[in-house]
Design brief:
about 400 residues; alpha/beta; seven-stranded mixed beta sheet; about 40% helix
């Protein structure tokens, strides 16, 4: 395929060479201008936040050992000091309840939305009912007649699977060759059906989508094109705001907040960035972070071409950051957030693994390589950032790693 970039373009050269680099987005626009032209905005995120509140009693009932009594899914905001002695905040979604990964904010949410619609359609929810009734026997019997499908490299599949099985829904997770064996076994232990594919993430998603299109009582969670996933993630910005408010941190254009978001297909970082920009506009800078072998979102932003994949720039999509091993960005997400992304940083596998070890031995954080991406990107950018910039690294997964997988990474 012909690339819409000059062969001498330094961005293309860096992508082809697989070099870690910082790419300031030349297509960035003011947030107010972007939202004025968008079909989605604050009202959509407010609706998602209200839905999360309705689901809270159900979550507390389904997961009493991991979800607080108020039914909220959130993670702590931790503090560290960076290499220059500046404070660094960590939004610790590697420790989210239920799934120990950021996908709880999207996958769990979309399954709950599907269950809500089924229950309303069959008269199982009446005005004033607590949503905890969706864990009762009549709802369970209804849900057992329905199936949820999803394509995943692992964490979204688990988030969809654990919520679907808790409600009694059948679930099939189509997984790419990148997916780790322990993630497949964890799903099978829930009672999910794991469908393995020799191809990559995009092929697994396509296979799941094709099955869902031809079967009744089948619902497809589309990681590439789901507004429910996107808005579930966007609501997370308000969780961070509450924590920053408590710490006395108010982003401004003179003291901006720079947030590092690991990026695969784009749904989670795109949704979070959307919410952050709604809250703080240009006072927050959103930086997506990708492996050098899987720079799909950078490629989409740099070229504007939705058909290109990382294979077209000579990369193989093979990375230790399996959660970020995606060949082509979500076009839906790119359309929504391309002007809102301030920069993209690509990082090497060696740096990710070194950071996993450092975070464990220095701070006691149990991270997947994907979740270490923001720390690596921040270290690359730190010399160019002013002292007035506040930094948040958003982690994405890790507390769910079994010892047999995690301990060799940090030894």
């Amino acid at each position: 395929m012909t690339l819409p970039l000059n062969p001498s373009d330094p961005t293309l050269a860096a992508l082809r060479a697989g070099l870690p680099f910082v790419w300031p987005n030349p297509h960035h626009q003011p947030a107010a201008e972007t939202f004025a032209a968008s079909a989605y905005g604050l009202a959509d995120v407010d609706a998602a936040r209200a839905r999360w509140q309705r689901f809270a009693p159900l979550l507390a009932r389904c997961f009493p050992d991991s979800v607080a009594a108020d039914g909220r899914i959130d993670s702590p905001l931790l503090t560290q000091t960076d290499t220059d002695g500046q404070p660094l905040w960590v939004k610790a979604d590697h420790a989210l309840p239920i799934t120990a990964c950021i996908k709880a904010r999207g996958g769990v949410y979309e399954v709950l939305c599907h269950a809500e619609q089924l229950a309303l359609a069959h008269g199982l929810l009446r005005a004033g009912d607590s949503y905890a009734v969706l864990a009762d026997a009549p709802a369970h019997a209804l849900f057992a007649q329905h199936r949820v499908l999803v394509g995943s490299t692992g964490n979204l599949g688990y988030s969809v699977g654990v919520m679907a099985r808790a409600l009694g829904l059948q679930v099939d997770v189509h997984m790419s060759h990148d997916a780790k064996a322990w993630k497949k076994e964890r799903l099978r232990a829930l009672g999910a059906t794991v469908v393995e594919h020799a191809g990559d993430y995009a092929q697994a998603v396509a296979a799941a989508r094709a099955v869902a299109q031809h079967e009744a009582r089948c619902y497809f969670v589309d990681d590439e094109a789901s507004m429910l996933l996107f808005m579930g993630y966007a609501a997370a910005a308000w969780d961070l705001k509450a924590q920053l408010d408590a710490a006395g941190i108010v982003p401004s254009t003179t003291q901006p907040l720079r947030v590092y978001l690991p990026c695969g297909v784009g749904g989670a970082p795109g949704g979070v960035a959307f919410g952050l920009k709604l809250l703080w506009g240009d006072a927050v800078h959103c930086v997506f972070v990708e492996p050098v072998a899987s720079p799909c979102f950078l490629l989409r932003l740099a070229t504007g071409n939705s058909e290109l994949s990382v294979y077209d720039v000579g990369q193989n999509n093979a990375t230790v950051a399996d959660g970020l091993a995606v060949p082509r960005a979500s076009e839906m997400v790119a359309q929504l957030v391309a002007p809102l992304v301030d920069a993209v940083v690509t990082v090497s596998d060696a740096a990710l693994l070194a950071e996993v070890r450092r975070q464990w031995h220095t701070h006691g954080l149990r991270l997947e390589p994907s979740a270490a991406a923001g720390f690596v990107a921040h270290a690359m950018e730190r010399p160019a950032l002013g002292s007035n910039t506040r930094t948040v690294v958003w982690t994405t997964g890790g507390n769910g790693l079994p010892d047999a997988v995690f301990l060799p990474l940090v030894s």
